[in-house]
Amino acid sequence: MTSTPDDIRRDGFGRHARFHTLIAEIDSSFAGMCLYFPIYSTWRGQPGAYVQDLFVNKDFRGLRIGERLLRHLARAVRDQGGGYIELQVDAGNVRAQRFYQRIGMERDADHVYQFMGESLTVFAGNQDDEETT
User: Fold this and answer.
1) What is the pTM of this model?
2) In 3D, which of 53, 58, 57 has the Cα closest to residue 70?
């Protein structure tokens, strides 16, 4: 993990928020969070939400905090005219996969490809590169 609290403050709570966060508290203690951002599907022709992070503090696991956070998000998405929520789970995180299946989420067969860090910088090149190709 390379993000800092300043990164999170700037990008989530600054002038141009890039994500939204639902926070769960129990007796004024942090119990969990759901960090998400709006997305749009041209295939479906409707908006939705992409869950980047769903986290439940180990002291509060087993209390359905994660399910409650996702249910709250589902209601907000529905009430704003959206039709879906997406997220990704690491292949080795069997516990999370079971959780999402238990609450009724469906898994698709899409493979995820990404540019990240240096590979993004290299691929982006500069504008001069594009003008010569």
Assistant:
1) 0.83
2) 53
